[in-house]
Amino acid sequence: ADSPAIAAAANVRFALHAIAQQFTQETHLTIRPSYGSSGQLTQQILNGAPFEIFISADSHYPLLLEEAEKTQGRLVVYAIGRLAIIKSRDSNLLLDAKLQGLSQALTNNQIARFAIATPAHAPYGLRAKDALIQQQLWKPIENKLIYGENVAQAAQFALSNSAQGGIVALSLVKAPAFHEHGEFSIIDQGLHQPLLQSMVLTSTAGATAKHFFQYLQSDTARDIFVQYGFDLPRQD
Amino acid sequence: MTEDNGLHCSINIQSPISLTADLHCKAGDILAVLGPSGAGKSTLLKTLAGLIKPVSGIISVGGKQWSNINSAIHLSPQQRHIGYVPQHFGLFEHLSTIDNILIGLKHLPKSDRQRQANKWLHLVDLLPQKHKRPNQLSGGQRQRVALARALAREPSVLLLDEPFSAVDNQTREMLHIALLKLKSEIRCPVVMVTHNHQEAMLLADNILIVDAGKTVQQGTVSELLQSPKSIAVARQLGINNIFPVTVTDHNVSQQLTWFSLAGSTVCTADILPRTIGDTVMCLLPHDANIHRHLDEVESNHTHFELQLISSYELHNRTQILGFIAGTPTALRLEINRKLPSTASSSSIYVSIPATEIRLITEFE
Amino acid sequence: MTEDNGLHCSINIQSPISLTADLHCKAGDILAVLGPSGAGKSTLLKTLAGLIKPVSGIISVGGKQWSNINSAIHLSPQQRHIGYVPQHFGLFEHLSTIDNILIGLKHLPKSDRQRQANKWLHLVDLLPQKHKRPNQLSGGQRQRVALARALAREPSVLLLDEPFSAVDNQTREMLHIALLKLKSEIRCPVVMVTHNHQEAMLLADNILIVDAGKTVQQGTVSELLQSPKSIAVARQLGINNIFPVTVTDHNVSQQLTWFSLAGSTVCTADILPRTIGDTVMCLLPHDANIHRHLDEVESNHTHFELQLISSYELHNRTQILGFIAGTPTALRLEINRKLPSTASSSSIYVSIPATEIRLITEFE
Amino acid sequence: MDWQALLLSIKLSLVTTILLIPLAIITARVLAFRNFAGKHWLEALLMTPLILPPTVIGYYLLVGLGQQSWLGQTLQSLTGQPLVFHFSGLVLASLLINIPFALQPIQRAFESIPEDVRDASACCGLTFWESLLKVELPLVWPGIVTAIVLCFSHVLGEFGVVLMIGGNIEGETKTLSIAIYDSVQAFDFQSAGRMSFVLLIFAVSTLAISSHFARKMGVQHDRR
Amino acid sequence: MDWQALLLSIKLSLVTTILLIPLAIITARVLAFRNFAGKHWLEALLMTPLILPPTVIGYYLLVGLGQQSWLGQTLQSLTGQPLVFHFSGLVLASLLINIPFALQPIQRAFESIPEDVRDASACCGLTFWESLLKVELPLVWPGIVTAIVLCFSHVLGEFGVVLMIGGNIEGETKTLSIAIYDSVQAFDFQSAGRMSFVLLIFAVSTLAISSHFARKMGVQHDRR
Ligand SMILES: Nc1ncnc2c1ncn2[C@@H]1O[C@H](COP(=O)(O)OP(=O)(O)OP(=O)(O)O)[C@@H](O)[C@H]1O
Ligand SMILES: Nc1ncnc2c1ncn2[C@@H]1O[C@H](COP(=O)(O)OP(=O)(O)OP(=O)(O)O)[C@@H](O)[C@H]1O
Ligand code: MOO
Ligand SMILES: [Mg+2]
Ligand SMILES: [Mg+2]
Predict the structure, then answer these.
(1) What pLDDT is attached to residue B85?
(2) Where in this chain does the record put each ABC transmembrane type-1 domain (chains D, E) (predicted)?
């Protein structure tokens, strides 16, 4: 059978990996996920990239695809993302849900570099910016920011300890690989706009893709999303 | 003009230098090209090879036109089937000696090539160097590879640019004999640039003098020696003792001309009419008499003092190089005995029978 | 050995070829190096220049050691202050003719350099080409740039590798005179590789023969001509008529030796004792008598038939090249009259007084 | 270790090199030996990919060949598939980017064949093809090896353009370069390290082999 | 148009080229003229950055210079700032990556100086420095120009390593190559197009100028 290429926002990387494994076990069908920032992937699909499902970090980019008539069926909100502030084990930044430790460290000039995803095309970057603005930290931190090309790269920068910390997706932090290197704290939901993560079938989607699209909405998948720190949308 | 099976050439080129050339060479003949350094000899050879395109004129070989600019004919070097030894050899550095020769033998059946190549390597005495690359060869060895490569092609015209300039006397003699033997075998026109007039005279049936981008004179050795068109021609033929003198008197009926040489007035037989005050070329023979003292000189001989520069004995004859005392005119003399011992390092007296002095008018 | 201010060299090198060399040259003298192509002449010169390091031996100039491998002395070419003309010129392609010369004049005050460079360019007759780059020059012009560059340095030793090989007769004569004049001025040892024995004899005070990676013999022209150590030496000196013969009889008391030459038995005076059956070298003079018919030959003359290869007349003498009929032995003869006309293209008879035939033993 | 990515990278490098080198040899020879009007402009044009950042080239390819462009749509309707985000698109991009890397060393090598040698080859009666095969190619061989190594390795390492017009679709456009980048982002330093190490070994052995070849078959141009 | 990114890219290119070329000239000369044990290994080692994908180099730099490494910590305590995510880190990376681009053309050029000419230069009494300045450098000049153009342009276009170790900090590590990539991802085709166009013009004029220089000062090696 065919093995559809699937474009997925970087933040769902570990969750999707677990779901795909389960899917393959149950159906003996495989998928080929590619990860990037939601904006980058949208761009690629618009220019003809042969992805059959687009799993975004928000709903804005899937809507763009719908407008461009690159989709079949409507978009589906599959999870609600959460932000986390992280640091490597060697950094002595204090982590908390209201970013007070960060604020403290900034006043004490203890922050040289701080990582977020690029707001230009990564929704998690945009929401991280929201949170920093909300806590009046944007001005002092702006020239210390390093931007990951997507949220996963931002996390990797923060973990390298070359940056003292970063704001990334909670779903990345839940991965076992992260625990070897870093620590985190969930950020208060009130500090940013909600991340209503949607997915959509593209116009080239085939049977396997459609099957997987359904599977992503199954209970098995929803359980896995929760394991990886996502909130779930109300089921209609 | 193109009835026989020789090489005829009457061309004009403009780039890289301007050169006007008229020459012909019968099949089986060797035409030696002599001329001062920078005269355009190599350029002429390249044009014959088809590497330089003339702006006008005709080159034909055996009645076939190789170049005729008016008729837009210009055969490529490949089409001319020539053998060419460039002045700087142009060896293929990536090929062994034998492969350098084999590469030019396409016209032979495959089975014969190896034999032919070995034959020519043997001829130029390079069999032991057969598998060396050019950069492992000495200057003379490199030159011989280039020579063998050209000869082995059994070409329709052989073009040699100073082909023996880098080899020693012994090797050269060997190669001379090889070339002379070959010439009757291959029966193609051979044009050979050389700067050795003895070599030219020994090998060539005809000599062509090139000077300052022009072919000045072509003829047999004796034709050229008899009436060289200019000092340059005479010099190229190894006539060293030639210099301008001024006519002081002339007697038409007796065919005598007087001129002054090294302070004294000399009278010599001279069939051409001269005007007093004219500059003519005086040609002294190489044979001369050498004296320790002035009083030994015979009366009808012209004599002058010679400031010796150098001398050596070879084959029972003494070669002498010196200045006419008090002038910058150098003479080269040859006497058939040893130099008088007292004179070995300073001045001696030279006498020459006035009848052996010739005067020629420089044509251009 | 190093008391005078000349060049002394006794060395052994191993790479790129193995070469053993013993030579000396007084200041103000010219030592000509002759030898077959590939003998190691250029390699020897490079070693003197300091470009190749000997494995053992000493080079000293004016009492100063340039190389003494035992004492770990090995001056760099820069420290030797030499003038060197490489066989392939080694011009700086990016510099004009004059700049090629100026670059070697560091030892002069800045203000003098231009004058000096112009002086030498004038001497080699290249002033008009002053601003040309090497790739715009002819072969001979390139060589003269290299020569001027070396001379202009006023070196402590002058090393010339076939410095006149690419120039015409006229230019060469001019350069010969320049070099001879210069030699007394600069008073440094001059080592000159050449493959022209006449040039060597004309210019050199001493001649060194190199053969197969060894210096074979050094001496004055007459020393070498009198007793060449081997055929190779004799050939390099322009003694062409030399070939092996077998002793058929010998009379010690009368000092006579018989041998067979071209079918007939010849008797010649010979002071050395010979054994019948020995191979010795027979040396025929260049002077010979030429006859149309056998009956013209004088009785005490050795005679044989000569198959003519080529001949030419120059300076009232005829140069002849031919084979002893029925043998592959080539002779070069010189007679002081024209060739008999009937003989112009086939066989003639040659006679030589038996007294003029010399026998020598080849040493090695 | 992502073997698929490694294979894809090698395939891309091979295809590019094999397609490009013969074209480069022909073009280099023309540029080295012939003079024609506009030659300097052509030379400059062929050099531009060298100076342009790969993302600029990626941008122009995306705009020119993407589905939003007229050319991209025409090509897609002709070939049935889009060029961008497809292996053929990567090949096209690699070809374009590597023109100077293939051309330059070979052209320099042709130019350094002395006139004497070319004259001699013509006068030995060698036809165009014989001269090319038996004289010129052996003499320019070191230049060709350099070109091959440059192209091959440059394609192997290309990242910007691939990311821009290739995405990183497994088995299609996900080259090793991108796979390593991806692993690092997945905090999978182990596979990143392993892949890097394999490539390091590969690089060193490729170099050893190619320099051996160049030395064996090449000729030191010696002016003797 | 991101002028800051353009300036940063040019600055990085200049710094790298200026630091690297003199080192390359010295090293190339040694490699061309001297023989020593392990020379072939050294040559292979110096070539590896050519064959390794930039992401591999980026990975090793990240691991080697990052703050979790011993080297990275030492360097940081010495210089007071981390090398990664900083301009100095980019310079270091660029230097490393461009070694072969700087070295190769210059070494080839040195190697093609005929032995005769070097002999003549020694015999003209030129000291090491005089010979280098008056004879060798003019003769290898075309090789140096090639090296400069290669390095400059290669740094200008470098993307993978920068992305991997530099992030894209504005005015610090966000080079033009990354700025263009970013604009395209952010649907900002207008600025991407503008930046690409500026670079295209820049590339063509750089080429015109450098080829003019190479032609004017260079020498056709002619074997006459
Ligand atoms: N690099 C090398 N490798 C191997 N053999 C070499 C090398 N260089 C020179 N030779 C050999 O060394 C010998 C001597 O060379 P050299 O150049 O000294 O000869 P030469 O006497 O100057 O000859 P010529 O008169 O032809 O110039 C030659 O036989 C040559 O083949
Ligand atoms: N590319 C060029 N540009 C300018 N002048 C040139 C060029 N090539 C040759 N010449 C000039 O043309 C003239 C003739 O050169 P050519 O090589 O034919 O001389 P030649 O008679 O063979 O001399 P030689 O005996 O020294 O080899 C020379 O004066 C030389 O300076
Ligand atoms: O689209 Mo992302 O997951 O914010 O890089
Ligand atoms: Mg010439
Ligand atoms: Mg030699």
Answers:
(1) 93
(2) 6-210
B159-207 confidence digits (pLDDT tens): 999 999 888 888 888 888 888 878 777 788 999 999 888 889 888 999 9
Measured distance CA(B320)–CA(B335) in Å, rounded: 8
In a domain, E94, yes or no: yes
CA–CA distance, B208 with B192 (Å, rounded to integer): 10
Token output for C89? 């010129």
Q: pLDDT of A137-159, one tens digit each?
A: 999 998 888 888 889 888 888 88
Q: Are strands C30-34 and C190-193 parallel, antiparallel or unpaired?
A: parallel
Q: Is D191 among the domain residues?
A: yes
Of B334, C201, D135, D48, which Cα lies nearest the Cα of E156? D48
Q: Which domain holds residue D71?
A: 3-219
Give which of C173, C228, C176, C172 is closest to C204, Cα–Cα: C176
Asked if D87 and D171 count as a contact pair (C-beta separation under 8 A), the reply is: no
D53 vs E: CB within 8 A: yes
CA distances from C121 to C111, C145, C175, C233, D47 (A): 17, 8, 12, 36, 43
The whole-angstrom separation of Cα D62 and Cα D90 is 11
Residue D192 maps to a domain: yes
From chain D, the residues in CB contact with A153 under 8 A are 185
Residue of chain A nearest E73, judged by CA positions: A162
Whole-angstrom distance, CA of residue C39 vs CA of residue C215: 9
Tokens of D114: 């002395």
- Which token pair is C149? 């560059």
* Maximum CA extent, chain A: 59
Q: Where residue E23 falls among pLDDT bands split at 50, 70, 90?
A: very high
Check E85 against A146: CB less than 8 A apart: yes
**Taking the CB of residue D115, how many other CB atoms lie within 10 A of it?**
17
Measured from the Cβ of residue C249, the count of other Cβ atoms closer than 10 Å reads: 13
- Considering its fold, how many domains does chain E have in total? 1
| Ligand having the closest approach to the CA of B37 | 2
Backbone angles phi, psi at C169, to 5 degrees: -50, -50
Residue type (1 letter), C347: S
- Sheet strand arrangement including B264-269: B264-269, B256-261, B242-251, B279-283, B358-360
The SS3 assignment for D163 reads helix
For C305, the enclosing helix (H) or strand (E) is: strand C301-314
> Do the beta carbons of residue A64 and residue A200 sit within 8 Å?
no
Q: Which one-letter DSSP state was computed for residue A231? A: B
Instruction: For residue C190, name the pLDDT band (cuts at 50, 70, 90).
Output: very high
The DSSP letter of residue C195 is S
CATH number at residue D203: 1.10.3720.10
Rounded to whole angstroms, the Cα distance separating D71 from D82 reads 11
Architecture of domain C3-236: 3-Layer(aba) Sandwich (3.40)
Contact A47 D184 (CB under 8 A): no
- Residue C341's pLDDT is what? 61
Its ipTM equals 0.81
Q: Is B120 on the interface with D (CB under 8 A)?
A: no
Binned average pLDDT, 10 residues per bin, chain B of 364 residues: 74 92 92 92 94 93 89 90 90 92 89 91 89 89 92 91 87 84 82 90 92 92 84 84 86 85 80 83 83 76 81 76 81 79 66 82 64
Q: Which residues contact C190 (CB under 8 A, 6 or more apart)?
A: C25, C29, C30, C31, C157, C158, C160, C179, C183
The dihedrals phi and psi of A177, each to the nearest 5 degrees, come to -55, -35
Token pair for C102: 């100026």
Q: How far is C145 from chain B (nearest CA, A)?
A: 12
What are the residue ranges spanned by the domains of chain C? 3-236, 244-360
The answer to whether residue E178 is domain-embedded is: yes
Q: Residues 68..107 of E with a Cβ closer than 8 Å to D: which?
A: 104
* The two structure tokens encoding residue B205: 């049936």
- How far apart are the C-alpha atoms of D125 and C335, rounded to whole Å? 44
Cis-peptide into C16, omega within 30 deg: yes
